[in-house]
Specification:
The protein is an alpha/beta fold and 423 residues long. It is 41% helix and 18% strand. It contains 14 helices and 16 strands.
Amino acid sequence: MSEYPAVITLCHQARQAAAILAHIPTAEKNRALHAMADVLWKERAAILAANQADLEAARAAGLSEAMLDRLMLNEKRLQGILNDLRQVSELPDPAGELMEEKILPNGLHLRKVRVPLGVLAVIYEARPNVTVDVAGLALKSGNCVILRGGSETIRSNRALAAAIQHGLQGTNIPREAIQLIEDTDRQRVLELLQQDQTVDLVLPRGGASLHEFCRQNSRIPVVTGGMGICHLYVDASADLERALPVIENAKVQRPSVCNALDTVLVHPAVAERFLPKLVEKLRADGVTFRADPEACRILLPQCADCVLPAGEQDFDTEWLSLVLGLKVVVNVTEAIEHIAAHSTGHSDGILAHDPEAIREFVEKVDSAAVYVNASTRFTDGAQMGLGAEIAVSTQRLHARGPMGLRELTTYKWIIEGDYSVRG
């Protein structure tokens, strides 16, 4: 039995806090966000020490370099997280926003108004920044949140959650608005997924197995996302020199995240010129390649040190590391077909100047973010002006793409009459 409060207790506390938080004025929520950021920075030594202990345990357990990168905090990363938190305070408060208004012929006055979802359950792996990002976005949008991170980051999350709750002291926001399940037993996740009487939405952030586990076991609606098999298609009309740094940025800047590039598709008219240049540039960054037969014909044996023939599952793999798939496609239509077959619907783009190719790609690629002449790394709440996102949804309901403040609300109708009755 866990020494921590039962999951059901935490959820009931969150439901009670939600009734209070939903009516807290914007200025008070903003003050709380700044207070949280101040305390997190003040207590950074304890937070970074806890993170270092997590890193040492993760290395001893044999976690991959990609997972270690996701787990790692330092002062620079912490400062960036806190900057995002403060940026959220500068964003418009969606709660109470008037979405639609009209007066019907019968005199009824209708208003459609944004309201918080209520209580969120966020289940995540490896990334301690999620603890702060989610807390800030939930609070600003008027939602309470139950956080459940992975065992590999439990020390970091405890330190972060304690600082966050410390920051809420002296505000009118209950500390129960942001709570962490500290018991890392997976049974606690199962219990959390059954709390449909108190929790309104589940947001898993992690690998495919976590998303599938939540979908199969939850009695609460689940928003899935955060997995990206991302593509860039290089059309015959692309500026090949300018395409190189875009692909490098998408692959190399931070390869362990979900919007990092996994596969480059190339038109045959430019493949002979472009692929050797691409490999030459990215091999200097430590990138290795998995190439289809046509790309292998162009690149081998000259590039045998870093190019391997693509395996059966390679184009269905989210690499999260310095590995990049290469495939020559007949035209934009085949590129779209490949993306439809292998993409997770996260972020896919085209590098081109031909307006017809761009039009076809944008219209037919069904991903949460579709790019034209830009890196996939922009699928990010802060980069898109939303503040730190709570997740990147790859489904169609209830939100799609980076889930910022507005995506954490629903709405209600307010109907005013004059003692009106329906005829």
